[in-house]
Task: inverse folding
């Protein structure tokens, strides 16, 4: 580390001061994470054991809807910005390690199981692009060209075992699976007619089922990736038949999947309900009325609880479902405009961002007591390094 | 049948504002007619074009006329700026450069009619994810937002911490 860097970081951490003094600043990354400060293009680095803000990394551009994946060692955060930037942030030196403008409008990304490929999903130009995680050099460019000259916006990108990535084409009603084992010659399997307007997707914890939510109709499209020839199956078709859908002010996010035991918990579209599905039969086994249009429906890592947040105008609330009874056991009001929740690796705490209160709250998931709060400018996504070890995160 | 919501919304919209001119009511009506045809293969773009075309052809001026009253005061304007940047920003981007929803920069909106913009904000756009915001906005506020967007939307102010 250069002396100038050390001076700049003085006072930020005793660990780094030790590094400046010439002693190797050996530290793990298992309790590190980041909070996106969307309005200022800043990433806050946090420690989940100490429940503190460690540092801010600035200059990441437009971070509205920014999402993050981690290298396998938990040292590097790959940040996908709305403006098409892909930034590799070193959580130990707390600096930008590499940065590339890879698209005009981006919505997120994924990282391969072996940590060698990071892939961005883009709206403009519609498609995916794969980069070498070491250098951020472009490895493959796969436009989502569903008709001559027509590119679809890509949503719901997930990593699959091997160098495979599944994603959905919002404008083409399709799911594509690209195999990048041979970097120079990617092979893409295209599944058309999956249902209208897929808006996001998830892969189950075992990497077997890819499920895309549909905005244009009731139901979800599911692919069993363990089948010899993957095909699309409709699940929960017509879950809202005969009812009047409510306005959807914000698209739900499926990525923080909630699979708890043999049940999956999914946000309904246009209704104030969480849908409960049996993951053996893929039949609906229940609906839980909730306080608004669900956005994130996330299981605590042990699956005992499912936490739900909501779109505007109900986004001052968070609700907790007990998965043994399917009942809401707690309604919390952690702040104005709750945008995201992230569990600590084993789920004893959850971190919640309240955008309009500029606050991140750490809440005990057993007692629901607030354990700490931090001030972050318009916080949105919260991402902990434990994601590095999970498929689909 | 997602679009049925919007049909009902549009009907309410008319019902709640019986003083609206015939020209204004015509847009929701034609929208409903459009919806009864089966969705085309690439329905989004075509549908959008038809809607814009309809609005242009009718030369709607009424939205502005009756919405002049009740323009938002300075405090409310500040709230609306934040709402557009942050909540509309979920789909359109914090800098309104687009996302799942189209870009709402001044350049991107150059050829769009003001009344149609305001009507879309207030009543939503059937067949697309654009929701009606009338539960959170008055028509005058929708018009004010449309005017600001077309003029280049104000930068967000730093909130007190």
Result:
């Amino acid at each position: 580390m250069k002396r100038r860097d050390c001076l700049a970081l003085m006072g930020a951490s005793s660990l780094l001061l030790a590094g400046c003094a010439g002693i190797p600043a050996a530290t793990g990354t298992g309790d590190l994470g980041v909070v996106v400060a969307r309005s200022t293009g800043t990433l806050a680095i946090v420690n989940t054991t100490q429940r503190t803000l460690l540092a801010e990394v600035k200059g990441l551009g437009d971070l509205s809807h920014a999402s993050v994946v981690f290298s396998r060692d938990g040292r590097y955060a790959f940040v996908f910005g709305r403006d098409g930037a892909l930034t590799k942030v070193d959580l130990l030196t707390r600096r930008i390690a590499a940065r590339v403008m890879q698209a005009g409008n981006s919505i997120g990304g994924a990282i391969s199981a072996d940590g060698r490929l990071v892939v961005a999903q883009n709206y403009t130009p519609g498609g995916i692009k794969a980069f070498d995680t070491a250098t951020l050099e472009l490895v493959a460019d796969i436009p989502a060209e569903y008709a001559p000259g027509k590119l679809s916006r890509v949503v719901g990108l997930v990593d699959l075992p091997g160098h495979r990535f599944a994603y959905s084409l919002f404008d083409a009603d399709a799911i594509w699976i690209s195999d990048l084992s041979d970097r120079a010659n990617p092979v893409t399997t295209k599944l058309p007619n999956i249902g209208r307007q897929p808006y996001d997707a998830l892969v189950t914890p075992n990497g077997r089922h890819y499920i895309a939510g549909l905005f244009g109709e009731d139901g979800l499209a599911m692919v069993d990736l363990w089948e010899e020839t993957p095909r699309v199956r409709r699940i929960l078709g017509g879950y809202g038949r005969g009812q009047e859908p409510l306005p959807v002010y914000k698209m739900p996010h499926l990525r923080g999947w909630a699979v708890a035991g043999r049940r999956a918990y999914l946000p309904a579209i246009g209704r104030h309900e969480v849908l409960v599905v049996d993951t053996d039969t893929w039949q609906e086994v229940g609906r839980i009325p909730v306080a608004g249009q669900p956005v994130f429906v996330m299981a605590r890592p042990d699956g005992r609880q499912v936490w739900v947040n909501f779109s505007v105008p109900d986004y001052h609330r968070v609700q907790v479902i007990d998965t043994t009874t399917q009942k809401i056991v707690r309604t919390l009001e952690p702040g104005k405009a709750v945008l995201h929740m992230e569990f600590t690796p084993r789920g004893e705490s959850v971190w919640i961002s309240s955008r309009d209160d500029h606050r991140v709250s750490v809440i005990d998931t057993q007692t629901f007591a607030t354990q700490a709060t931090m001030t972050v400018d318009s916080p949105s996504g919260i991402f902990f390094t434990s994601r590095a070890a999970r498929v689909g995160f | 049948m997602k679009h049925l919501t919007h049909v009902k919304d549009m009907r309410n919209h008319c019902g709640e504002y019986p003083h609206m001119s015939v020209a204004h009511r015509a847009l929701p009506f034609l929208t409903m007619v459009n919806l009864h045809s089966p969705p085309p293969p690439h329905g989004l773009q075509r549908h959008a074009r038809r809607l814009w075309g309809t609005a242009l052809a009718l030369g709607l001026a009424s939205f502005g006329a009756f919405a002049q009253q009740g323009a938002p005061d300075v405090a409310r304007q500040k709230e609306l700026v934040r709402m557009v940047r942050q909540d509309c920003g979920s789909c359109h981007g914090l800098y309104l450069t687009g996302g799942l929803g189209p870009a709402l920069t001044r350049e991107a909106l150059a050829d769009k009619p003001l009344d149609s913009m305001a009507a879309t904000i207030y009543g939503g756009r059937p067949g697309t994810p654009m929701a009606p915001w009338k539960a959170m906005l008055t028509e005058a506020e929708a018009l004010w937002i449309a005017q600001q967007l077309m003029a280049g939307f104000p930068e967000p102010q730093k909130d007190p911490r």
Observations:
- Residues 74-92 of chain B form the longest helix (19 residues).
- Residues 102 and 108 of chain B are 8 Å apart (CA to CA).
- The mean pLDDT of chain B is 68.
